[in-house]
């Protein structure tokens, strides 16, 4: 018997939850006040709900189908899995997106799919959904399409006209990992697709004199890699990310802690997802993108190439570079202020502004909502010099929570 | 920045403040544009002292031209705190308003939402909904005022509205989605609650699923671990293998 729409929604959202991204930010600003249609994107994304896993629900994140001809070991939808299968028609996906949007449950659609028949057939159906939303229904909300790497360039280009973001998953941090666990996927093809997309984005963002620029993937491309399914070190993972950011101008690299799935493959460990490790990788990624750190600096001095789990990578860096501290908050430049553990980008901007008016002391920092306890060993301020604090042997213990062992399931 | 903008002789806050009246009428009254942005947010706050604060800032700005840049001044700190709280409430309104469909009477579809904001933000946030839900008629009703859009005019009122009792079947599909996008192996309840504070829960159709999702999570993960991977793959897998 054919499954109801609701039953299929259950199967196809179950199948989509291992994709980490749910971002709806960073696209072009637009709304429906002139078109009289439906939808807007106004810069920052909106999380319309949070699941008990603490993840933001911003988009309707579903698979068009979870039938798949590939057999990737880490994937719930691999062809050898006995997971329940279902498929939406393009019209059903369009309907669900619009009805969910009208009730203000979501910012838009994140559509992915198992590969059925062949790459082009699958991609064509996905593009049709995006095209119908935009052209038939005048929809101006957010659309993220997961691109099939083997699909033809023409289809990917068409997808880019309708989607805010396109992504192609590199799947695992190393080529060897992909070859081993995703035998039908080829790292070279994935890179070629990402490269072609980058070139197209660059080309279409060149200003022209004669006509308006075409809107093409305004929120750029992103990717995801699974962490902890095979024994790659954090240093290797972060190095691989740095390469992705610089070679393909990716907006984001998502790290997805390998998570137990129903009917899991026997060749992979059934572990509790390494959530703390995933969190530390995101923090490192953040330091690289917004705080001026090099990826190699972050993992330098870690003999096994692994980030510390019990303290964050910024504090860890500061503790192994104590000669760079204390930092005088009334005189240091922005670059060095950004390296103080406990200062965020906003705090640093506030300090730079406030210190034009007076010499700042610890109480001024308190009013900027900085945790004095966290920062005082690393800074000098009006009326405050940490004297010997920075040289104390037990400085680390003042920050680190007692270690906890990650358990096997 | 010393760019200034003229404001009306008696700012809205003046009548309610207990401070002294502004200086003589001949004197030109100026504030930096950033003050208007700040004051517009501050006066939406539910703190009864908000007008006093806004007025005090207005007064001090006449002699302390760079006051707004002094981000560790106690009045500025307080004003920023109110602004931030209003900003957060506004953001949560954009996120947590849930429209329910009413029977269609004319050409346009009609929706209504009941929301309970912490501050007086309905008029402030309503234009966002107008820009987004342009092709449908809607009402957002709250105990602190309401907003109505009919495709041509956006009207707002400060009067307390009554909670409507409406059922929308699509809520069930949304609840199905919410339950299935959750990964039980990644339970992080505190994180969820800090972003989706309980004060907003009562009008969200999905939240009554949360206790069960949390309770069953551990068992579901254990079941996944204990169940052996099946030894037989589905038929189509075998067919696919042959094709290669």
Can you put this structure into words, describing what you see?
- The complex is a heterodimer of chains A (409) and B (244).
- Chain A is globular.
- Chain A has 2 domains: 225 residues, Alpha-Beta Barrel (TIM Barrel); 76 residues, no CATH class.
- Chain A has 409 residues and is an alpha/beta fold.
- Chain A starts with a helix and ends in a 10-residue tail after the last helix.
- In chain A, 37% of the residues lie in helices and 10% in strands.
- In chain A, the strands form 3 sheets. Chain A has a 6-stranded parallel beta sheet with strand order 3-4-5-6-7-8. In chain A, strands 1-2 form a two-stranded antiparallel sheet. In chain A, strands 9-10 form a two-stranded parallel sheet.
- Chain A has 15 helices and 10 strands.
- Chain B is α+β, with helices and mostly antiparallel strands and 244 residues long.
- Chain B has 3 domains: 88 residues, no CATH class; 61 residues, no CATH class; 57 residues, no CATH class.
- Chain B is built from 8 helices and 7 strands.
- In chain B, strands 3-4-5-6-7 form a 5-stranded mixed beta sheet, with helices on one face.
- In chain B, strand 4, helix 4 and strand 5 form a beta-alpha-beta unit.
- The longest helix of chain B is centred in the middle third of the chain and has 23 residues.
- The radius of gyration of chain B is 26 Å and the shape is elongated.
- The N terminus of chain B is likely disordered.
- Classes of the chains: A alpha/beta (409), B alpha+beta (244).
- Chains A and B meet through helix 1, strand 1, strand 2, strand 3 and helix 2 of A and helix 3, helix 4, helix 5, helix 6 and helix 7 of B.
């Amino acid at each position: 018997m054919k499954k109801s729409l609701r039953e299929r929604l259950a199967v196809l959202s179950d199948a989509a939850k291992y994709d980490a991204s749910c971002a709806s930010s960073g696209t072009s600003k637009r709304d429906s006040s002139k078109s009289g249609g439906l939808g807007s994107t106004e810069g920052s994304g909106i999380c319309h709900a949070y699941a008990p896993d603490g993840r933001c629900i911003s988009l309707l994140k579903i698979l068009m189908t979870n039938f798949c001809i590939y057999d990737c070991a880490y994937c719930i939808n691999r062809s050898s899995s006995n997971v329940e299968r279902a498929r939406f028609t393009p019209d059903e996906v369009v309907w669900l997106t619009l009805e969910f949007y009208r009730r203000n449950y979501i910012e838009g659609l994140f559509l992915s799919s198992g590969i059925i028949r062949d790459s082009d057939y699958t991609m064509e159906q996905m593009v049709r959904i995006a095209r119908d939303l935009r052209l038939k229904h005048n929809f101006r909300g957010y659309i993220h399409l997961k691109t099939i790497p083997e699909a033809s360039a023409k289809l990917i280009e068409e997808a880019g006209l309708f989607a805010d973001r396109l992504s192609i998953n590199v799947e695992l941090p190393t080529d060897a990992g992909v070859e081993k666990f995703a035998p039908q996927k080829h790292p070279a093809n994935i890179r070629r697709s990402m490269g072609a997309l980058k070139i197209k984005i660059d080309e279409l963002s060149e200003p022209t004199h004669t006509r308006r620029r075409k809107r093409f993937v305004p929120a750029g491309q992103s990717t995801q890699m699974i962490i902890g399914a095979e024994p790659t070190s954090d240093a290797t993972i972060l190095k691989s990310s740095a390469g992705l950011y610089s070679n393909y101008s990716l907006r984001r690299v998502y790290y997805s802690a390998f998570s137990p799935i129903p009917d899991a493959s026997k060749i992979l460990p059934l572990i509790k997802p390494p959530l703390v490790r995933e969190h530390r990788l995101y923090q490192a990624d953040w330091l690289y993108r917004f705080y001026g750190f090099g990826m190699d600096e972050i993992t330098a001095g870690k003999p096994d190439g692994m980030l510390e789990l019990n303290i964050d990578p910024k504090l860890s860096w500061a503790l192994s570079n104590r000669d760079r501290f204390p930092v005088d908050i009334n005189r240091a430049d922005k670059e060095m202020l950004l390296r103080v553990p406990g200062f965020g980008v906003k705090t640093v901007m506030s300090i730079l502004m406030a210190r034009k008016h007076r010499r700042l002391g610890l109480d001024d920092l308190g009013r900027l909502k900085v945790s004095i306890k966290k920062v005082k060993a690393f800074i000098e301020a009006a009326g405050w010099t940490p004297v010997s604090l920075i040289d104390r042997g037990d400085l680390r213990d003042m920050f680190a929570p007692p270690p906890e062992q990650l358990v096997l399931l | 920045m010393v760019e200034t903008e003229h404001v009306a002789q008696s700012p809205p806050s003046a009548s309610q403040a207990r401070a002294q009246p502004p200086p003589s009428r001949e004197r030109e009254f100026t504030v930096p544009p950033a003050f208007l942005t700040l004051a517009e947010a501050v006066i939406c706050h539910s703190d009864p002292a908000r007008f006093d604060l806004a007025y005090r800032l207005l007064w001090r700005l006449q002699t302390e031209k760079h006051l707004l840049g002094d981000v560790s001044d106690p009045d500025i700190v307080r004003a920023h705190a109110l602004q931030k709280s209003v900003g957060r409430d506004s953001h949560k309104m954009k996120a947590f308003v849930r429209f329910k469909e009413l029977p269609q009477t004319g050409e346009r579809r009609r929706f209504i939402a009941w929301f309970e904001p912490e501050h007086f933000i309905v008029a402030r946030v309503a234009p966002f909904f107008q820009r987004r839900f342009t092709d449908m008629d809607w009402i957002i009703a709250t105990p602190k005022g309401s907003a109505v859009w009919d495709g041509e005019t956006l009207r707002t009122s400060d009067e307390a509205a009554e909670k409507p009792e409406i059922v929308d079947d699509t809520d069930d599909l949304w609840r199905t989605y919410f339950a299935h996008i959750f990964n039980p192996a990644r339970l992080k309840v505190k994180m969820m609650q800090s972003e989706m504070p309980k004060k907003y829960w009562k009008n969200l159709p999905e939240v009554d699923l949360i206790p069960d999702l949390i309770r069953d999570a551990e068992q579901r993960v254990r079941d996944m671990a204990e169940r052996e991977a099946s030894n037989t793959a589905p038929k189509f897998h075998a067919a696919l293998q042959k094709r290669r």
